[in-house]
Every structure is written in C-alpha cells, then in structure tokens.
Write a structure and sequence with these properties.
It is a single chain. The protein has a four-stranded mixed beta sheet, with helices on one face. A two-stranded antiparallel ribbon has the order 5-6. 37% of the residues lie in helices and 20% in strands. It is an alpha+beta fold and 123 residues long. The protein has a single domain, classed as Glutaredoxin, CATH 3.40.30.
C-alpha cells in the first residue's frame, strides 16, 4: 500500500494544532503526518510555501494539499466544498493566516536563505 505524506511545520503551535485536529476529525491510516523543520524540506521538488501533501510522487501545497488529503482520506464532500472556492482565494486566505501566526518568540516557517550576521554599531 502506498503511504502518502503530509508535511507541516513542526515548530509552529498553530500548525501542530491543525495537524492534531485534522488527524482526529479526518483520520486516515494511509497518510503519514510529518512534523518537519522547513529546512529539511528543501530536498522536495516543490517550493516550501506551507503545508505539503505528497502522494505517488505528486506534490500539492497550501490549500490544495489540504483538499487532496481530504479526498484521499475518504471525505469527498469536504474536499469538494473546499474546491468550490477558487484556488487563488483559498491560497490568499491561507497566506494571510500564515503571515500572522507565531511560533513562540520566532516567526513560523523561517526563511531558507542563510542569515547574515551583523555586528551591533558602537555608540
């Protein structure tokens, strides 16, 4: 049996709550939930923009990842309900929520670019 994978930001409390909620409300034994550090996901052939759903070598991100999970998990009604909203609207809303979430003292999904260290200016 082919196991699908659902990647989410393991350091984000909002993401952790969503994953917990989704697994309880829409359980599926054929999906592995992976709490990942986004820097680990650079090996995937998709841009790391949010949650990622992988099944059979195909990848979906953001709200389409959620919709594909719902379809695969056996909840076609919820998948079609989500699919009734245009993709750009769904992803726009997803991006607004993602911009406002916080993971403790840091922002979630940190930039994958190396940080430049600067020395504080002397007064």
């Amino acid at each position: 049996m082919n196991v699908a994978k659902f990647y989410y930001d393991g350091g984000c409390s909002v993401c952790q709550r969503f994953a917990y909620w989704a697994q309880r409300l829409f359980p599926s034994e054929t999906v592995e939930w992976i709490a990942a550090d986004y820097s680990d996901l650079t090996q995937l052939p998709v841009a790391v923009e949010g949650v990622i759903y992988e099944e059979g070598g195909r990848y979906w991100v953001k709200t389409e990842a959620i919709r594909q999970y719902l379809k695969q998990a056996g909840y076609p009604f919820w998948a079609s309900l989500l699919g009734a909203v245009p993709l750009r609207w769904r992803d726009w809303l997803y991006d607004r929520v993602a911009q406002r979430r916080a993971c403790g003292k840091r922002r979630c999904a940190p930039s994958l670019e190396p940080k430049r260290r600067t020395r504080p200016k002397k007064s």
